[in-house]
Amino acid sequence: MPIMAAQGRNDARTAARLLASTAKECLDDPASAPANAVVLNNVYRLLEAYRGNAFFGLEPAASYYPAAETLSLVPPLEQYVSVVRDVLEQAVVTTFAGQPKDEAIAVIENVLKRIAYPEFGAPSDAEKKKVKRFFSEVVQHLQLA
Amino acid sequence: MTPLEFLKEEFDNVRRALDETLRHDYGPEQSVDYYHECEARLTDIDAEISRIAATDAAKIYTYLSQLSYVATFVSLIERSRLGEFSWPFADELRRIAKTLLAEKDLKGDLLDPIIHVVSEGQGYRIYYEAQVPVASSRRRFLVVAFPRSLKHHVLLHTLFGHEVGHTALFTTIAGGILQGEVLAALVAASPLKDLALMNAWLNSTAAHQDVKNELAAYAAQNGRPFVFTKENRELWLIELICDLFGVLLFGPAFFAAHRAYLQPLHPSPYTIKTAQPTHPPFAIRHKMLVQIMRVTGWDVPITSAADGAFHIAETEMLRFLLDDTYDQWSRFFDDADLRRAVAGVQKIFAPHGSLGYAPINPAGLVKLIERLTRGLPPILADIDQDGTPQLTDVRISQTLYAGWVYWIGRQHLAGAVTLDFLTTNRLCDHALLQQRAINYTLIAGVT
Fold this sequence. Notes:
The complex is a heterodimer.
Chain A: H1 12-28, H2 37-52, H3 81-95, H4 101-116, H5 125-141
Chain B: H1 3-19, H2 32-49, H3 57-77, H4 87-100, E1 103-104, E2 110-111, E3 114-120, E4 125-128, E5 141-147, H5 154-157, H6 160-169, H7 173-187, H8 195-202, H9 209-222, H10 230-250, H11 252-262, H12 282-296, H13 309-322, H14 335-349, H15 362-373, E6 381-383, E7 389-391, H16 396-409, H17 421-444
Parallel strand pairs in B: 3-5
Antiparallel strand pairs in B: 1-2, 4-5, 6-7
Helix pairs in contact in B: 1-2, 1-3, 2-3, 6-10, 7-14, 10-11, 10-12, 10-14, 11-12, 11-13, 11-16, 12-14, 13-16, 15-16, 16-17
């Protein structure tokens, strides 16, 4: 038995929280967004996976992989992706009440694109505010117990 | 040592590990992108660590996780050794993966994955990056793991078609189609339509006795009946989609490998393995592949009776594939739904020209098999009377189709040599290498 649980080293919640909090900071200070384009692009990847992947959040049980495979030098199985999915779901509902999920995600992605790449034009203040609220919700609900 | 000091020490360790790499034979054009991606991720992490307060335990933990994640990829750099896997096949996989698994970024630009090949003790696997990406990732890593003991067995390597399917499911472009029309077709009228139907199917009186026994044993041991969960259903759907993907990518050569490799691992083709029902029973998977052979028309031999022994050998190979005596209980899909699913996957391949399987012409197939009977790699490169080579682009799935026809039908084929399975594989492996040279020549227009 290893000295600590494997999931301690690959917790999807911490990765998602880092992405969401950086996005929120960039919305607070759009001038910092171009320098954080790599992170914002990963926020985009996360949103796309959540939006388009029916299996997003599906985590095979740890026992799915035989013990010998734990010797393999690949990152430990990702844990709590389903929690991340549920938090995103809730944040969409709270922030974009009544709006279809695809539309809401498109709005968020569009704002991220415009702050990361100012050549596409600045997003409206109303949209920025809404998207910031979305990421605030995500960060708040991904706080570790 | 404070937590922040430990984080900084860890960073230095991973940085040193990266600096000490690149001492092995990784193959041309394969490690530079990989190295630079690791380096870029570490640079970002370094910048963030310098801003973390010593009291910010949550952030220290987050960056230890991010660092640990990069460290595993750094460790994998030196696990790639050309001498441990079929690199012509790996090269083909790289081409397929780059084409199929590219994803769009926020700006709409296409980003190729960085494909890294290693050999492992376990079976065929492709490791793609986490569903929730790390903050510093530019291009995604995709690690292809060949089973070390099957170094030369290219006839079995077509099983990677299934693994590519797993990865494709989690990409935005190919994944969108697989999870849209393909998934819709597979759930339209099958027991996988919903969880209630799936459980009803499992408990139907038509279920095989092996399954009834398995369920009874589970109930006796646990004091309650076994029921499928939502997760089980989704995992089964994924596995079936990936089988479908594999057979449409590599054709009957995939199916032959599927049967040869998986059947011995399923003493009962029906049991669901209640402890970990992650995969559908072998009988369901086999029956679906047989149906796909029929709906695509690949169940008909390419050769004709006029081709004599070659035709008999091919017919024998198809008989091996199409042999399906499993209970009707394991038939999940209507032909019409499978046709829709096939069309969906082919839509993914269509923009990329020669990616999916297409049968070779009869004369070409006969020539490929004939070369194997003489102990030669199956390529089409005759020299004409003027001494000019007549080169033909044979797809990998066609070369391997010929390999399987030779192997399954070899008792019908007269030839100078009789090959064992390993030698058949090695000749096919050489053929893939030579085919690469042929294709370079054809592209350059040298002939």
